[in-house]
């Protein structure tokens, strides 16, 4: 137990108190997810089916793993085969389905497809399709890696073709596999100018006017093909502020063409402003991509990425209040020698071996206990977030502590329980989702928070005063 929790001997007034208010928060939380680019392309082709199943359980199974219920499927563009050597990073060479106009290869992208279908067997119930780049033959540069100068790379005479390409993939997955993509995003960080030819990943810049054009064409193409269950999301900018800037430039027709606003939260400060804009426009809001590698050299036990992840999740749930929170790649390339991702496997070798990182357990502190359908609750502490699951009558409180060891008190407010104890889970330098029992006293509990830790307290049989 490490002497972490005090005996049930009352609450000291001088301890900082976290107050939970049921009436302040938001409903409609749909869950947690991951993009399948680029790890699905690699992992999904493993010959060792047992190892593949283990990784998929670790990510998607709600009991054995993180319980992610959302996937973002990358519709690859497919690089120009004449470009040698291929500059795309391991896994980044996602195959396209249309090698040239009029030709289709529906056997392409076996790996990512396998992962998506197996994920759905494990409880994934929401799927979004997205594009990083048009097929190479639609581009100005002749490459899916971007334009020569980082500018617009979709040829003027190919906008209709690109919209048709994306929606045809959506139609194929519906008819062939029964996969209903709820949303389709033709963009990925489109305002960014780092998508230049020779890049190590697919990417395409779209200026504001070009964003509006492809969004509208994609929406029309979906309707024309009778794909009414799929709507358009946009714009998936790198930062919250960039997303807000682009949205301010969208006209009424463009807004009418989308049902959901997607943003990445790598950067930006205007979280509340974006939330209010989405509410004003009547659009669902997703945090559709974030990932972190921390600040330290390659180390599976790195704590800096744990702290960054926990801080980001809490800030997003408190201020942005998205319906869904989606990590970039659940599985990252060990050969890249960085600390991104929850599971590492060598993409170059593709040998079915993997290792779990400390960041995996930090993510579990949230995703295993704040489940889809929960009401995200307000607290007075910027380093904490709470969630109430009315179906389970269960309350989860997650606290991030990047400081030294400190004591806190938590007051449940109008939420009460007849249980004498709660369950505590903690990830710290020495622990990975370690479990303890916490005594409850007068509708409160006290904790000593470890330095550089993420702590989750789960309380059952919750009712109202």
TrEMBL record:
Pfam families (UniProt xref): Glyco_hydr_30_2
The name this protein goes by in its record: Endo-beta-1,6-galactanase-like domain-containing protein
Species the sequence originates in: Paenibacillus glycanilyticus
InterPro entries named in the record: 6GAL-like, 6GAL/EXGAL, GH, Glyco_hydro_b
Domain Endo-beta-1,6-galactanase-like: 17-239
Stored Gene3D superfamilies: Glycosidases, Golgi alpha-mannosidase II
Organism domain of life: Bacteria
């Amino acid at each position: 137990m490490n002497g972490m929790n005090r005996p049930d001997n009352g609450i000291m007034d001088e301890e900082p108190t976290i107050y939970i208010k049921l009436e302040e928060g938001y409903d409609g939380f749909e869950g947690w997810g991951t993009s399948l680019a680029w790890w699905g392309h690699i992992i999904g082709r493993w010959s060792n089916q047992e190892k593949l199943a283990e990784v998929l359980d670790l990510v998607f199974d709600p009991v054995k793993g993180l319980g992610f219920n959302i996937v973002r499927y990358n519709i690859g563009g497919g690089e120009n085969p004449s470009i040698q050597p291929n500059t795309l990073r391991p896994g980044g060479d996602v195959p396209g389905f249309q090698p040239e106009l009029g030709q289709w290869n529906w056997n392409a992208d076996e790996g990512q497809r396998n992962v998506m279908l197996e994920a759905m067997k494990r409880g994934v119930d929401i799927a979004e399709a997205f594009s990083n780049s048009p097929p190479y033959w639609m581009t100005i540069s002749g490459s899916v890696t971007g334009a020569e100068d980082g500018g617009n790379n979709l040829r003027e005479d190919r906008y209709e073709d690109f919209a048709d390409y994306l929606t045809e993939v959506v139609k194929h997955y519906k008819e062939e596999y029964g996969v209903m993509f709820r949303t389709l995003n033709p963009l990925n960080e489109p305002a960014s100018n780092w998508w230049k030819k020779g890049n190590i990943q697919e990417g395409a810049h779209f200026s504001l006017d070009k964003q509006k054009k492809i969004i509208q064409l994609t929406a029309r193409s979906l309707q024309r093909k009778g794909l009414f269950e799929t709507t358009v999301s946009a714009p998936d900018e790198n930062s919250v502020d960039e997303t807000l800037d682009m949205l301010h430039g969208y006209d009424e027709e463009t807004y009418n063409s989308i049902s959901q606003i997607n943003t990445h939260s790598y950067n930006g400060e205007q979280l509340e402003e974006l939330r209010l804009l989405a509410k004003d426009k009547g659009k669902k809001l997703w945090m559709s991509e974030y990932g972190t590698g921390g600040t330290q050299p390659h180390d599976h036990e790195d704590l800096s990425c744990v702290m960054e992840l926990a801080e980001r999740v809490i800030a997003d749930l408190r201020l942005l209040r998205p319906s869904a929170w989606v990590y970039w790649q659940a599985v990252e390339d060990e050969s890249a020698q960085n600390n991104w991702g929850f599971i590492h496997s060598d993409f170059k070798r593709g040998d079915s071996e993997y290792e779990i990182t400390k960041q995996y357990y930090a993510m579990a502190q949230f995703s295993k206990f704040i489940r889809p359908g929960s009401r995200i609750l307000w607290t007075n502490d910027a380093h904490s977030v709470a969630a109430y699951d009315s179906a389970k009558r269960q309350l989860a409180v997650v606290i991030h502590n990047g400081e030294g060891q400190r004591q806190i008190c938590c007051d449940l407010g109008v939420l009460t329980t007849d249980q004498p104890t709660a369950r505590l889970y903690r990830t710290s330098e020495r622990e990975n989702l370690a479990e303890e029992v916490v005594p409850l006293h007068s509708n409160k509990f006290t904790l000593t928070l470890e330095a550089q830790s993420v702590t989750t307290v789960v309380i059952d049989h919750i009712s109202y005063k």
